[in-house]
Design goal:
two-stranded antiparallel sheet, 10 helices, 37% helix, globular, binds NADP nicotinamide-adenine-dinucleotide phosphate
Length: 306
């Protein structure tokens, strides 16, 4: 627990800044429930995997390679099922979708947690800026591909970020998705996190009138491997600051575990949660027209991919 936690009160959910994933899921029996989790081998994903397993769930634990997925699952027994999902490779994501379908499982929740942050240079993948491609397009293919497997009361949780605020003027850069003319490491990341949020929002619109929910979350700021692309000195500096400000991984995983499992979270379809309570995203994050346009554009992009 950081010093910041001492000054933060719990919100209306009864949870707050320093609530952990174990605390928000205490008393829940997830036996017989199946969760799909991306980025299960590191940081918040690994803690989310641990706590879901602790509560009795079965977890399809996705990592970029079989070795990483197996390594992540090995201490959790048979209910942690290692699977491969490389989000930057559309054919690998489609193969993952087919593998999940072939298992014949019903998914109680999909937690789109994997993400890449602050790539120093503007890189593209199939002509699309890499943060956007990995964090948004990869998950767009995965989640849409598995909607038939989602339970009637299933949940989709998109791990977005407060960094959705850090975007170029105009929000989603529909006419420059290759990053040209606007890219910086933080714009690249924020742009993709805005896309995660808008995706959750538009999905939520489609879920209206059903028992399904789609929620986006900000986990907090946590020192994880997410900083792997940043300068060498960021790690020790964050390690020091960590003592005062940042959340632990146990605290950071709380909001996504809450959104995916807690009975009270079913009322949050289309909302953005932080510390297990609703917070207001930016104007772009609330823009239903931008969300619809992003959906259409993403469909167009994926239909042209090999
Ligand atoms: N930590 C924070 O302060 C913070 C704040 C706001 C939001 N978030 C969000 O929280 C989520 C989890 O981040 P984290 O902090 O736990 O970071 P992390 O420890 O770096 O975990 C990120 C996960 O995403 C996976 N990943 C990266 N690129 C991928 C790809 N191309 N295909 C499939 N998986 C890929 C990583 O796999 P490898 O290990 O193989 O690279 C890793 O498992 C991210 O979406 C991040 O944007 C984090």
């Amino acid at each position: 627990m950081s010093l910041t936690a001492l000054f933060r009160r719990s919100g209306p959910s009864g949870f707050g800044y320093s609530s952990t994933a174990e605390q928000v899921s205490r008393g829940l029996d997830l036996t017989g429930k199946t969760f799909l989790l991306t980025g299960a081998n590191s940081g918040l994903g690994l803690e989310t995997l641990r706590v879901l397993i602790l509560r009795g769930a079965t977890v399809l634990a996705m990592a970029r390679s079989e070795a990483k997925a197996r390594q992540a699952c090995k201490r959790f027994g048979k209910r942690a099922i290692p699977m491969v999902c490389e989000l930057s490779d559309p054919s690998a994501v489609r193969a993952c979708v087919e593998n999940v379908k072939a298992m014949g499982v019903t998914l109680d929740a999909i937690i789109a947690n994997a993400g890449v942050m602050a790539l120093p240079e503007c890189e593209t993948n199939h002509g699309i800026e890499r943060h956007f491609f990995t964090n948004h397009i990869g998950h767009f293919i995965l989640v849409n591909g598995l909607l038939d497997q989602l339970a009637e009361n299933g949940r989709v949780v998109m791990v977005s970020s407060s960094a959705h605020r850090k975007v170029p003027e105009g929000g989603i850069q529909f006419d420059a998705l290759d990053g040209k003319g606007w890219y910086s490491p933080w714009f690249g990341y924020g742009h993709s996190k805005l896309a995660n949020m808008l995706f959750a929002k538009h999905l939520a619109k489609g879920f209206e009138g059903t028992e399904r929910v789609s929620i986006s979350v900000h986990p907090g700021v946590i020192k994880t491997n997410l900083i792997r692309h940043m300068s060498w000195w960021v790690n020790p500096v964050m390690g020091f600051v960590n003592l005062f400000i940042f959340k632990s991984a146990a605290e950071g995983a709380a909001t996504q575990v809450f959104a995916a499992t807690h009975p009270d979270a079913t009322k949050f379809n289309g909302e953005f949660l932080s510390d297990c309570d609703v917070v207001q995203p930016t104007e772009y994050g609330r823009d239903a027209e931008m969300a619809e346009r992003l959906w259409e554009k993403s469909q167009k992009i994926i239909s042209a991919l090999p």
